[in-house]
Amino acid sequence: MSLPYAGNAPDSIDADQVDPETGRVETDSPARRVRSQPVSQIEPKRRQFLWQDRLPLGEVTLWVGHAGIGKSQAAVWLASQVSQGTLPGELYGHPSPVLYLGSEDSWAYTLAPRFAAAEADLTRVHRLYAETDTGDGVTAESTVSLAVDLDALRDEIAATGARLVVLDALLSTFGSAKLTEQGTVRRYLEPLAQLAQELNIAVIGVAHFRKASDPNPLHMIAGSAEFGQVVRSAIGFAADREAEDGSCVLSLVKTNIAPAGLPSIRYRIDSATVDTADGPTDVGRFVPLGDTDQDVGELLNQESASTEDRAERNDAVAWLRAHLAESGGEAVAGDLFKAAERDGFAKRTIQRARSKAGVTTRKGDKGWLWTYSPTDER
């Protein structure tokens, strides 16, 4: 499929197409016209999720974080769950095929062992790549290109019955496109999103954060700020530098289709040993640890905190410990934030101080409860 696809407005107009007297555009494309449709003719549909409330079907979801944070291991875990039919969501109980493009890791040495460690149904996980005939019966492999391979990708999805497509890394499918030019990302991703909607599949695009810090995860995506503007769904990954178990956090960092108040998920990357024909090999395995009220944006803020920020956080730590001690060691999060605001502390500051203060959280009847015991200080 060439770019732009048929659903886009024209990107540019040549000067010789404009009538100098009327200013109107003269075009030799009789197939193009403007239409309207009564909304009464459009049948409402229920939003479906591949991963309940987190990963929608019919959409492209960005999967973003710093290098080495475990994004690829998490994508392998999710794809493995889909292949087994064990992922909570629309396909639970229905093992389904997956197409996985892995352009940054070796399939033989890294990705295949990772899928084995994740206990995937390996007959349902398909390595995705492009193939070109070079003549004399010889073919050459390359990375799928969104600019030229979209129709072929549609055919492969139909042939395999895949319900999830993972593009790791998403940027590898852009080829030599100039991402700094306005509109480039939109011209590539909107046809892909249209394909996802047409086939009712989920697409994950794995991307990296830039080295520069920013409190908004969508502003940190490497390549172009347009990534965060174009997609409707994004999941971010961040390290929790104050977690004693070395765990990290994943959060929805952009969505207008998931329920409000969805908790983040804490996870860890463990080492797993996989047997191969020439001996055992070790790979990283994604291990979800449960819900958390920590947030990726909050953790990224901690990474970029200045000396003044750290001083403010130390004051917040002292306030938090004192307030909870006076409240019997426990308080509803919402009430605690209101009390903090009255004493001059922003909600974000208190959230950032929680781990350092030795405060733990749990779900209660009235929402999240924050708990502190002086014997638990660390």
UniProtKB/TrEMBL annotation:
<protein>
    <submittedName>
        <fullName>AAA domain-containing protein</fullName>
    </submittedName>
</protein>
<feature type="compositionally biased region" description="Basic and acidic residues">
    <location>
        <begin position="21"/>
        <end position="31"/>
    </location>
</feature>
<dbReference type="Pfam" id="PF13481">
    <property type="entry name" value="AAA_25"/>
</dbReference>
<dbReference type="InterPro" id="IPR027417">
    <property type="entry name" value="P-loop_NTPase"/>
</dbReference>
<feature type="region of interest" description="Disordered">
    <location>
        <begin position="1"/>
        <end position="40"/>
    </location>
</feature>
